[in-house]
């Protein structure tokens, strides 16, 4: 099941989601979001589009460990250090056009992601 958020809606509308395990793709791009809602309950979630928002912070608890694609480009993210370490299945990670500065720790974490092929 893919979920597309419409303008002025709750980022995760309960009426659309019948079972958390039904959600595999989540489209939350271009919605003016300032934070990432907790998505860890979606155990089958593989792809998340959060690009073109106003997100400043990425928390470790936001995603489940089976996520394979994460689109965070065009936000206001300052750092992702420690937030993605548990995403061992991640293959695609887009972070361009953010406000990230000190990248040494982040690069070190990304080196441990064996399946990551698009950055």
Automatic annotation (TrEMBL):
Sections of the chain in a coiled coil: none
Database matches in SMART domains: LRR_TYP
Keyword Repeat: yes
UniProt-listed PROSITE patterns: LRR (PS51450)
Pfam families: LRR_8
Entries under SUPFAM superfamilies matching the protein: Outer arm dynein light chain 1 (SSF52075)
Domain of life: Eukaryota
UniProt keyword terms in alphabetical order: Leucine-rich repeat, Repeat
PANTHER family: LEUCINE-RICH REPEAT-CONTAINING PROTEIN 72
Protein name, as recorded: Uncharacterized protein
Taxonomic classification: Eukaryota, Metazoa, Chordata, Craniata, Vertebrata
């Amino acid at each position: 099941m893919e979920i597309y958020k419409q303008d002025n809606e709750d980022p995760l509308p309960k009426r659309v989601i019948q079972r958390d395990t039904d959600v595999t793709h989540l489209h939350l791009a271009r919605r003016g979001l300032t934070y990432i809602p907790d998505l860890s309950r979606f155990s089958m979630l593989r792809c998340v589009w959060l690009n073109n928002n106003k997100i400043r912070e990425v928390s470790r608890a936001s995603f489940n460990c089976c996520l394979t694609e994460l689109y965070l480009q065009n936000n206001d993210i300052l750092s992702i250090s420690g937030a993605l370490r548990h995403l061992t299945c991640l293959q695609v990670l887009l972070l361009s056009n953010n406000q990230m500065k000190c990248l040494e720790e982040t690069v070190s974490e990304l080196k441990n992601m064996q399946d990551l092929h698009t950055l």
